[in-house]
Hints:
Blueprint: E1 3-4, E2 9-10, E3 17-18, E4 23-24, H1 25-54, H2 57-84, H3 91-119, H4 126-148, H5 154-176, H6 184-209, H7 226-246, E5 252-253, E6 256-257, H8 259-264, H9 269-279, H10 284-291, H11 295-309, H12 314-323
Antiparallel strand pairs: 1-4, 2-3, 5-6
Helix pairs in contact: 1-2, 1-7, 2-3, 2-7, 3-4, 3-5, 4-5, 6-7, 9-11, 10-11
Amino acid sequence: MRQRENRRISRRSGLRVIRWGPLDMRHLILAFYLLALIAGTVSISQALLIWQRYRKLVIRRYAYFLLALLLILLSFIVDLYAQVASLSGNTGVRGLVWVFQAAGGILYIAVCPFFFHSLAGRAVPAWQKWFFFLLDALVVLAALGNLLFPTMKALPLALAGALFSMIVYGLVFTALHLGEIGERVLRRALWIFLCLTAAFFPLMLIDAAMSEAAFLSMFQFMNNMAQPAYFLILNCLSILFGLRYLNRPGYSQKGRLTDYFRTAFRITEREAQIIGLLMDGASMKEIGRKLFISPKTAENHVYNIYQKLGVRNRVQMFQVMSTNSLD
């Protein structure tokens, strides 16, 4: 039910009768979007403040990731507000919606793979960098082409398809490398992100396709609330993620462990040397030979390091160190 009449409020004195007009469901959806916008703005501001303090590469990419989501959210808000205010046919409003959609989509496509690789502590291979660069260039051309030839429906579809494929790429990449995440806070945050997106993404697709497919009318009860609810929850969780995971100094800089890392994890001088060799890919025999200790002693040191960092293997340790590097 899209509209309903609010109750008539009257006073016994008869001096005034207040009659509220019809309440459109779109107003409630717009309110959820605005709450999501506030939470998104707070999360971006928080990420920028943390980056100014610690200068981690992953924080900067995280801020770009949040900015892309905020621009896409703004496009939805402007579009919905135009519907409520009967401005949908306004050329300027349509252009503003497209600018926000294109800017958010292009930025998301450009930063998404690098951000998720940073979280996993993995460098982006050279061939993938070239592929992503080519994809970004094609998306920019599609966006410019849509401005010049607004009647060509293939161009916005190309941008939407590229954005959708990059969203899927981020989800699949995160799911495949979740076991490599050494830090429990980050692993739990990514697991919640995957579950949240897996739950809401089909609902958002249904909302979008409901007007085109009559058989989806059974989902009319959702009232297009899936998308604003998803953005609101995601942006609120991103604030907690920034406080719990990002808001701390780096672990290494220019190949050297920071004082914060050594103090926080009680790393000895010998363990610091071994961590450096492990990061360089040295085997137990090589570590023993370089430090003049037996391979068994090296294994004992490595075991103690894993226990202190809360990781199970070298891959997880590499992820922890790489993600929290200041380089």
